[in-house]
Design a protein that fits this description.
single chain, 318 residues, Ferritin, 77% helix
Length: 318
């Protein structure tokens, strides 16, 4: 990598052209990624793509006048000081807040680059163009707001925000909640049954650890194989499976860890307290994200957990 201060005017212009081309490709990828789910926001990024194309045209015209037809390939990853942007194709599905933040950071970085480049060139025409482009990048925030106002009236933006929330619920909250409920509730019976049957904290811990990890693996595969997300919009199956499997294991491990306490009665008391907290978290998530009435959410979760807990105690004590 080279320092920016070591670049010649020819290399600075070549880098500026490459930056505009890369930014344009990023905006094109964002627009394509948003087109199906968020068409109005996709139009905003398509128009910002057109703005970047105009900047590129002006830079190439000046470069041709100064240095001829050949433009050397100089990319921002070849120069120290530039941010590294993760490729859009690696960040699917796209979130509205994430791509808006990405666009803002790109504009700020490009504006800073043009001002630094303009400050170190002695050629009047190059300095003028770079200064104009820096001002244009500074005004992009206002342009973006105008494009957003034109393409995203309040009702449309609210609808896209609701759609994004639905996608988040389907792809993250729902599989995570399924896993947490299964891990927290289904492992209660074997853990407490083994605890009361053996009277040993260590035996209960081993059973709980095995049940939690086994349930996590089973639930992870079950969720990943349930559908590929193409029809339901639930996202990538491997991601959903990983979320479900992890949360299932976490749900079971929570009330298993207290059995590392050597004193059996203390371990039982702490484990019961942890179970109450786990069930409360599940009820809160159902109320917060799944629109379940708070009293109903608490009642349903607590009754289900109490039944499984009672089964474990009865079987272990028999």
């Amino acid at each position: 990598m080279r320092n920016f201060s070591d670049l010649t005017e020819r290399e600075v212009l070549a880098l500026a052209i490459a930056n505009e081309e890369e930014d344009a490709r990023i905006y094109a990828d964002i627009a394509e990624g948003l087109r199906e789910t968020y068409p109005a926001s996709a139009r905003v990024f398509s128009e910002m793509l057109a703005e970047e194309g105009e900047h590129r045209r002006r830079l190439i015209e000046l470069y041709r006048q100064k240095f001829g037809e050949h433009i050397p390939l100089i990319r921002r990853q070849d120069v120290r000081g530039f941010l590294s942007h993760k490729p859009i194709w690696q960040t699917r599905p796209l979130g509205l807040d994430a791509v808006r933040a990405l666009a803002e950071s790109m504009e700020l970085e490009t504006q800073r680059f043009y001002r630094r480049a303009a400050a170190r060139t002695s050629d009047a025409s190059v300095r003028s163009l770079l200064g104009d482009l820096a001002d244009a990048e500074a005004h992009h925030e206002a342009i973006a707001e105008q494009l957003t106002a034109a393409n995203l009236p309040a009702g449309v933006r609210d609808e896209e925000d609701r759609a994004e929330r639905r996608q988040f619920l389907l792809r993250v909250i729902q599989p995570g909640l399924v896993g947490l409920m299964d891990g927290s509730v289904s492992t209660l019976a074997p853990v407490f049954a083994s605890a009361f049957a053996t009277g040993s904290s260590w035996d209960a811990f081993l059973v709980g650890l095995a049940a939690s990890i086994g349930a996590g693996i089973s639930m992870g595969f079950a969720e990943a194989l349930s559908d590929n997300g193409s029809l339901t919009g639930r996202g990538q199956p491997l991601v959903r499976g990983a979320i479900t499997g992890l949360m299932t294991t976490v749900g079971g491990i929570g009330h298993t860890i207290p059995f590392l306490i050597a004193d059996f009665h203390t371990a039982i008391a702490v484990a019961i307290a942890v179970v109450i907290v786990e069930l409360g978290v599940i009820a809160w998530v159902r109320w917060k994200y799944m629109d379940a009435p708070p009293i109903s959410a608490v009642f349903q979760v607590m009754v289900g957990g109490a039944l499984v807990f009672a089964c474990g105690i009865l079987i272990g004590s028999s």
